[in-house]
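LAB NOTEBOOK - FOLDING QUEUE
OPERATOR: T.R.
BATCH SIZE: 2
PURPOSE: Compare the predicted structure-token outputs for two unrelated chains run back to back under identical settings.
PRIORITY: normal
REVIEWER: second-year student, initials M.K.

ITEM 1
FIELD SEQUENCE / FIELD STRUCTURE:
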Amino acid sequence: MKENIFNEPRFWLALLIGGFFLALTLWFNLTMDQSIFYYGVWVWEKYQQPPYLGVWDHNFPGMFLIARLALAIFGPSVFGFRLFDILVQLIGLGMIYYLAQRLSGTSLAGFLAAVFYGIYYYSLRSAGVGQREAFIFWLLLLCLVLAVTLGRRVWLRAGLIGLLLGFVFLVKPTYGLCWPVFGIYFLAKGIKARPRLVWAELVVFGVFCLAPAVATLLYYWRLDYLPELYQSVVLFNSKVYTQMLDQRANEAAWWLIAVPALVFKDWPLILFSALLLPAVSFRRGLLAKDKDLFWLIFFLILAALANYR
């Protein structure tokens, strides 16, 4: 397998075809969630009133920071936000190509994965693109790429992935489940090669995982807005979601009835492929060319399923 995907014609063809479908989202409007995020950061920039003070919302700060970056680069417009999202997802296509090729050992898998993702992303329509999960997925893709390409630079790998996962936590805290997934991966990779240093690596990883949340708390503390932050994203969410999950029967019905019904109804082709391909691979004894990457992705999928709400 070639490590330099930029020399492969299929890579550029995948970006061209997948990018075409991504470009179609440029004509989508902003729906409720994106409008709140973008208006919130516009108030933040114009009136120096950060989220939860200038504009109230119960979402965590990470998505506001992403929208602030989009506004800083492309300005306060629907076109600017959509263009920002397209460029982010286009980079995501490249990472999907690389990971699929590394996992399967063939560039054809990378090509198909990237093209299908472009089609899938367009199918989400206005309300589904530019959402928290899209950026979380992008950040997790980047973590996977760094995990497999920085194997010999363990300190840099631990710091960068920790920082990215810390930001994922700021977007949706339940994705903190990804922290132990990568922590166990680092431990498994380093316990035999460097048993003494691997624990220091995990400490570095943990510190950087916490860094974005600590920086956010310090920012709001310095402005004396910690109560607003707590009431909006901690108190409100805890009251709403704990009340929703009071009865175990409701929780069981969600996982056993609602989730399977949604998956079978909305993504039958994806589900069928997801079940068929691993089954064929196991039968032939060809789990993956990169088994470490396979198991890392497998457990990240489990963590993502736990966030399916």
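ITEM 2
FIELD SEQUENCE / FIELD STRUCTURE:
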Amino acid sequence: MKKSCFVISPIGETGSATRKRADQIYKYLIEPVLGKDWLVERADRIAEPGIITNQIIDRLANADLVIADLSERNPNVFYELAVRHILRKPYVHLIAHDEDIPFDNAPVRAIQIDISDLDSVDAAKNELNAQVAHAMTSKNVESPISVSLKLSEIRKSGDEDDVIISSLLSEMNALRRQVSSLSEFVAEDIQISKKNMKIMNSGYYNPSSSAYRRAEYDTSSATGAASLEASSAVSAANYYPSQYKRADDVLRGAESTSLDRLSARKKRGG
């Protein structure tokens, strides 16, 4: 019997850019990875009569896997994803490469994809394959909702060590969100700097032109200090993102270790 996967994503009207992207993600990423062993569905592709809302809830509750595309911050997607999160059943997050992961979902790793870039699609396929394999074999599915509920229970337990660990986990979640925000901020700054460096170096504008002066001002602002040259911001592209990713990985590892310690303590009865 085939396993079932329900895809939740922005769908949009027929012919819209949103619908085109949703169909491309479905056709060129999800279907090739899951293959013929899976029954893959999306809300607009459910091939049976009935009330669509009931059908969606049924699949959110009973599908073996849910893949959620967080791109465009569609409210329906987040409502449906919350249902899956609270059930603690296997799920995978996707997001457009040029969008930041929404605040409440920052702790969950999302597969970034640029559907117009074949290398990006190929990398996303590999990561999706790995995440699906892990999700389907994991005995303990966590989500932002389940972690928050678990921390709340720990705090109510009164155990001093557990309370300390739960506080540390809360702090790590807050730090991770800061890391995510900083990484996005730096990435945007670098893109502004690169764009304006092209303007300033194109030879089309001269230093006395208003366009050149505007580009120069924007570039200086993007790096956070008017005294920094645009080249500094461009060269930083290879430095800042890697450092923020490393910090994020460290935080994830620390959180995992803390949760493992709590589980071990519970099993031992103390």
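REVIEWER COMMENT (ITEM 2): The first strand starts at residue 3 and ends at 8.
FOLLOW-UP: none requested
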